[in-house]
Amino acid sequence: MEAAGYSYQFRIALLGDAGVGKTSLLRCYVAGARGAAEPDPEPTVGVEFYSRALQLPAGLRVKLQLWDTAGQECFRCITRSFYRNMVGILLVFDVTNRESFEHIQAWHQEVVSTQGPDKVVFLLVGHKCDLSTRCVSSQEAEELAASLGMGFMETSAKSNCNVDLAFDTVTSAIEQAL
Ligand code: GDP
Ligand code: MG
């Protein structure tokens, strides 16, 4: 978990189907941009990461290593050692894409099957909440999150809604588990 100049390094990944907005969410957070997400990011190929420095309330400097994934629907494209290295995972679906919500349990299972469920902090994220064409209600997402023992939050990179809060929620949960 250590990195030069930092007290800790937290490795966090975003998982979910292609097109749900993982790359946009990540870029919005890393840029700290108020307002616009990049209109049309290139589809992510393979896995890449972004870094962001963070100061915890206790004064500790933390380096967040944020891993983007190609949202290939073939879960097995991502190696098990990738999951094992993560301390936090955002499970992202698109509130206007029912199928992406229905795949959440499979993504969760993929991670859990590689490590004990209490080793990694999860957050369920319903993305694109700026859109009015939703087909997943907040309530059913809350229920799924509760049944999987994790929190739930709705985000938008377009209207920059809850982007910082989603990552802050995960990092404080990781910090608490240190
Ligand atoms: P990824 O495949 O999960 O990485 O998804 P992308 O970040 O590439 O986004 C897929 C599409 O959704 C792109 O056309 C984005 O512009 C769009 N998108 C991403 N975030 C949002 C959002 O918060 N609101 C809306 N309306 N569209 C978004
Ligand atoms: Mg992407």
TrEMBL record:
<keyword id="KW-0636">Prenylation</keyword>
<dbReference type="GO" id="GO:0005525">
    <property type="term" value="F:GTP binding"/>
</dbReference>
<keyword id="KW-0449">Lipoprotein</keyword>
<protein>
    <recommendedName>
        <fullName>Ras-related protein Rab-42</fullName>
        <ecNumber>3.6.5.2</ecNumber>
    </recommendedName>
</protein>
<dbReference type="GO" id="GO:0046872">
    <property type="term" value="F:metal ion binding"/>
</dbReference>
<keyword id="KW-0378">Hydrolase</keyword>
<comment type="function">
    <text>The small GTPases Rab are key regulators of intracellular membrane trafficking, from the formation of transport vesicles to their fusion with membranes. Rabs cycle between an inactive GDP-bound form and an active GTP-bound form that is able to recruit to membranes different sets of downstream effectors directly responsible for vesicle formation, movement, tethering and fusion. The physiological function of RAB42 remains undefined.</text>
</comment>
<keyword id="KW-0547">Nucleotide-binding</keyword>
<keyword id="KW-0472">Membrane</keyword>
<dbReference type="GO" id="GO:0016020">
    <property type="term" value="C:membrane"/>
</dbReference>
<dbReference type="GO" id="GO:0003925">
    <property type="term" value="F:G protein activity"/>
</dbReference>
<keyword id="KW-0460">Magnesium</keyword>
<keyword id="KW-0342">GTP-binding</keyword>
<keyword id="KW-0479">Metal-binding</keyword>
<comment type="similarity">
    <text>Belongs to the small GTPase superfamily. Rab family.</text>
</comment>
